[in-house]
């Protein structure tokens, strides 16, 4: 699953052509959920100014803009062995691929183990009173 999260995050944030070479009826529920995730498909189809923001050793951060409201999409990739990324000061509205939040801005403390990645939407104010 980590590999599938990684690939969909990477392909979406850098706007790779999304093609599926398989037999759709044979997909499990998890794979189908990745291929039909509306938020991830939105990042892929609508985001602008997609770019690698930073590469620090084996940590890579990609960002993109949401043209609808100037929010930022952020994808963090950890390529190191047993090292963890700590994103405790990050604020974000949506877990996007993994649905890690209820959809409201919260402080997050997360460790990203080897080979794991995540894609989230980062906003300063979602305008919803939270």
Automatic annotation (TrEMBL):
It comes from the Bacteria. Transmembrane segments: none annotated. InterPro entries: Aldolase_TIM, GH. This is CAZy families GH27 protein.
């Amino acid at each position: 699953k980590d590999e599938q999260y990684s690939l969909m995050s990477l392909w979406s944030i850098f706007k790779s052509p999304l093609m599926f070479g398989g037999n759709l009826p044979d997909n499990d529920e998890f794979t189908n959920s990745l291929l039909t995730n509306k938020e991830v498909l939105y990042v892929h189809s609508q985001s602008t100014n997609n770019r690698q923001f930073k590469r620090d050793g084996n940590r890579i951060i990609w960002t993109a803009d949401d043209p609808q409201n100037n929010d930022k999409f952020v994808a963090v990739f950890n390529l190191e062995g047993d090292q963890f990324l700590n994103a405790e000061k990050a604020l974000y509205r949506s877990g996007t691929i993994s649905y890690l939040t209820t959809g409201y801005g919260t402080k997050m403390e997360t460790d990203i183990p080897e080979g794991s990645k995540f894609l989230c939407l980062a906003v300063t104010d979602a305008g919803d009173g939270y």
